[in-house]
Amino acid sequence: MRLLLPELTLRLRQPEFDRIDIAVSFIKSSGLNLLIGPISDALQRGARIRILTTDYLGLTEATALTRLLDLSEDHASLEVRVFHDREVSFHPKAYLFYSSTGKADAAIVGSSNLTKSGLDGGIEWNLRVGAIDELRTRFSELWHDDRSLPLSEDLIDTYEPAPAYVPGIIDVADEPDGGPEPRPIQAEALKALEQTRAEGFRAGMVTMATGLGKTWLAAFDVAQSSAERALFIAHRDEILRQSRDVFRQVMPEVSMGFYTGAEKSPDARIVFASVQTLARNIGRFAPDEFDYIVVDEFHHAAAVSYRKVLDHFSPKFLLGLTATPERMDGADLLALCADNLVFHCDLVEGIKRNELVPFQYWGVPDTVDFEPIPWRNGRFDPEALETAVETQERAQAAFDEWRSRCGSRTLAFCVTKHHADFMAEFFRARGVRCASVHSGPTSAPRFESIEALRDGRLQVIFAVDIFNEGLDVPDVDTILMLRPTASPVIFLQQLGRGLRVSSNKERLTVIDFIGNHRSFLLKPRVLLSLTRAESPTTMQVLAALESGDFGLPPGCAVNYELTVVDMLKRLARTTTYDAIEEYCRSHYEEEGHRPTAVQAFHAGHDVARACGKHEGWFRFLRALDLLDDTELAVVEECGDVLRAFETEDTNKCYKLVTIRALIHDGTLRAGSEIAANAETSRKLLLADPRLAREIPEREFPDLAGTPLDRWTRYWRKWPLTHLTKHKGKSSPDGVALFRIDGDMFLPNFAVPDYLGEAFDAMVSELIEYRLAFYLRAK
Fold first, then answer.
1. Is 435 exposed, middle or buried (0-12, 13-18, 19+ CB in 10 A)?
2. Closest CA to 305 of 760, 771, 766
3. CA–CA separation, 745 and 733 (whole Å)
4. Over the range 309-340, which residues count as b (16 or more CB within 10 Å of their CB) and which as e?
5. Alpha carbon distance 266, 264 (integer Å)
6. DSSP codes of every residue in 310-334
7. Which parts of the sequence belong to the Helicase C-terminal domain (predicted)?
8. Measuring CA to CA, which residue among 252, 250, 282, 245 is closest to residue 266?
C-alpha cells in the first residue's frame, strides 16, 4: 500500500471511527509529531483511543511517552499502556479502527512503528484488512495482560532508554529530533534576564508583542536558570495547556502537572496553575515552594486573586509576561516586578526588526446598530449581541469587504460559536472554502482545519476565542474582525495572530467592523498608542483619524472610511470630563474594570490632584461610580484609614516597605511580631536593588548576612517606631496607624472580617502607587 501516514490520518479523522487501538513496538517523537494533530482531532470529537507500546530494549523514547502522558491528561478518552517484560520481545505493529454504529471497521498491519521513517518515507510493508475480529481479540488480550502497565509519571521516571550502541538488527529508525533553539529576539531577552538576575533583581517584567514567542522565552529561561521547581500561572486552562506544550518541547523529560479545578498535581517539577484555584488553596503551598514563578498575560495580575498569590510566594525569581504595552494593560504590574522592565519589544519594534510583518488596517462601517444593545461591565450583552450580528445584511457586508481585500488565508473572529457556524455557512454558500472552529460539538476539527488553511484547501477559518492566545498560524495573511471588543489586550492578540513572518505573505490585511458605540474608540486609541510613550488623548486620536497618520513603520497603513471617522468624532464629543476622569471612565468602558492608582499615574495623570479634590483616591473613584459593592463598603467603613495610608509621611521607602511586608504576610489587620516584619521587609528590600540602596552600607555592608536580631533592632528604631507617631491629618481620629506592644507591631484600626480581603487589596494598591511615585521622584 501507499505511505502509511496519509492512510492513518484519513482514518483518524473519519467521524464513523469512534474506537481506535494502536499497538506498536516502539514510539519516537518524530513519528508522534506527525500524528499528534489527527489524534487530537479524533479525541476532540469524542473518539476513544488506546495505545499499547513496550519498553523492550528501551527503544521507545521517554520524550514520546511524556507527550502521550500530557495528551492523556488533557483527554480522558486516551489511554496508554506500556508492555513491561524485558525478557519477552514485543513486535506487533497494528492500527485498528472500529465503529460502534455498525459501520465498516478497518485495520492496517505490517512493519511500521510509530516513527517518522515508519510512517512517512521508509521502506515498509503494510496491509489494509477488513475483517479484524481476531486482531481486536488479540489486542484486548495484550491490553489486559498484567505486564501492560498504565503510563504514569512514575513509569517514565524509572524508564531505562536504549544504550548508545544498539545491535544493527534492531530497527532504531530515526535520529532524535534536535531541541528547539531561541529565535534571535528571544536570545536577546534571555541575556537581559540573566543580566537582571546578576544585578540582584528577583523579579522582572518582559513585554513582547504577540507573535514573538514570549511563552517560548519563559520556557527557555526556566531551563537556563536551572530552577529546581517552577510555577506557571495563568487565568485560563486553555493557556495553561498551550504553555505546557511549549515547555514540553524545551524540557521534554521534566515532570509537569496542572493545578486547576479539575486536575491537581502540586508535586510536579513544573506546575501549571489556574490563578483562581491557586488562590483558593494557597495555604497548601509553602512560600518558598517554587524558586521560579512565571505569570503569563501579566496584565491580569492586578486582580485580587493574583495579588493574593504573589504576596504569598517568595521565589528566587518572578517573571511577568505580557504582549500588551504596559501603559495600556496595567502599569501597576511593574510595581510587582520592582519596576524592573527587563526587556521590551512591542509590535512596532518587531516590525522594524523584521520579526513581524507590516499590516494594512481597514476600519469599515458596521451595519449593526449598537445603541439598543445593553452594555454591562465593559461589554455588550452576549445574547443580544449574537442576535444583532447574525443577519443576512451584516454577513453580506462582511463577505463583500472580505472579497474586495482578502489574501489567501483568512482568520475571522466571531462573537459566539453559533455566530461562527452562521458565518461559515453563509460564506460556504457563496463558494468559499471555509470552516468554523471553536470548542463546541459543531466545530470542524481544529488541527485538520489549520493544516487545510496552510496548504490552501481552506480560505477562511471562522473562530471564537481559541485563536486569541497561543495558537500559531504564521501563514494567515488576512484578519477579519467580526466581533466588537472593549479590551486592548484581545484586540492586539487578534491582530498579532497574523503578524508572524511567513514565506507566503509580505504583509497582513486587517478588516475591522466599527460600530456606533463609544467602546469602538478603543481601536484607533490602541493603534496610536503603539508608537507613543504615553496613552494618547482623545484629541490626539481624533487628529490621527482625520490625517490617517498613526506614526507606524514603513509598510503599515491605517485607513478609516470617512463615515467611520465622522461617527467616532461624534462619539468622542460626548466626553466632557477632565483628563483623569476621562481616562478612568474610558478605561472602565474598554476593560470592564476601573484602573488602579498606579495605572493612572503611569498613564501620565496627576493622581494626587484627583485625590486632593475628593479626599482620597478611592473617594475620587466613588464619585465617578467606578467602585464595586465591596470596595464601596470598605470606603464607607474605613475611608479615613485608607486616607491615612495614602498620606502617611515618608522620607525614605522604609514605611512603605513595612506596610507592604504586612500585606505580604497577611498580618496588616492582625499585627505581626516585629522580628517577622523585619525579616520580610529585608527580603523585599533585597529583591529590589533600588530600595536596598537606601540601607546604609557602612552599617550593613552585607544586609542578607546581617544577624536577624541586629537587623530587627534597626528596623524597630526607624520605620516601626515612626509609624506609631501621630501625624495629624494622616491619622484617623487623631491616632497613629500602628502601635508597638512589647515584641508586637499592632494596628490601631479595625476592619470588619467580611471586608478584610478587599481592604488589604485596596491598601496594597495605595502602597504600590506610593512606591512608584517615590521611586520616580528619586
1. buried
2. 760
3. 19
4. bbbbbbbbbbbbbbbbbbbbbbbbbbbbbbbb
5. 6
6. HHH---SEEEEEESS-HHHH-TTHH
7. 398-543
8. 282
Return phi, psi of residue 55, to 5°. Answer: -100, 15
Please check whether residue 60 is in contact with residue 51, taking contact to mean a CB–CB distance below 8 angstroms.
no
Alpha-carbon distance 281 to 292, whole Å?
19
Tens digit of each residue's pLDDT (9 = 90 or more) over 50-108: 999 998 888 888 889 999 999 998 899 999 999 998 788 888 999 999 988 776 688 99
Instruction: Please list, in sequence order, all residues whose beta carbon lies within 8 angstroms of the beta carbon of residue 756, skipping any fewer than 6 positions away.
Output: 669
Among 551, 521, 493, 501, CA closest to 238:
493
What crossing angle do the helices spanning 756-777 and 629-647 adopt, rounded to 10°?
40
604 Cβ neighbours under 8 A, 6+ residues apart:
534, 535
Q: Which three cell numbers stand for residue 28?
A: 519516537
Q: How far apart are CA 396 and CA 503, in angstroms?
A: 31
- Using CA atoms, how far residue 608 sits from 597, 617, 620, in Å, is 10, 8, 11
Query: What's the rounded Cα separation, in Å, for the pair 346 and 369?
Result: 34
φ, ψ of residue 689 to 5 degrees: the values are -55, -30
Q: Which three cell numbers stand for residue 373?
A: 444593545
Domains in the chain (CATH in brackets) are 4-157 (3.30.870.10), 184-345 (3.40.50.300), 359-572 (3.40.50.300), 597-777 (no CATH)
Cα within 13 Å of Cα(537), Cβ side: 13
Q: What is the pLDDT of residue 169?
A: 42
C-alpha torsion 322→325→329→335, nearest 10? 80
pLDDT in tens, 454-487: 999 999 999 997 665 545 678 899 999 999 987 7
| Other C-beta atoms lying within 10 Å of the C-beta of residue 123 | 6
Strands 744-747, 672-673: pairing is: antiparallel
Q: CA 395 to CA 670: how far, in whole Å?
A: 59
Other C-beta atoms closer than 10 Å to the C-beta of 546 total: 12
Q: Where are the alpha helices (DSSP H) in 340-390?
A: 347-352, 382-389
Q: Which helix (H) or strand (E) holds 109?
A: strand 106-110
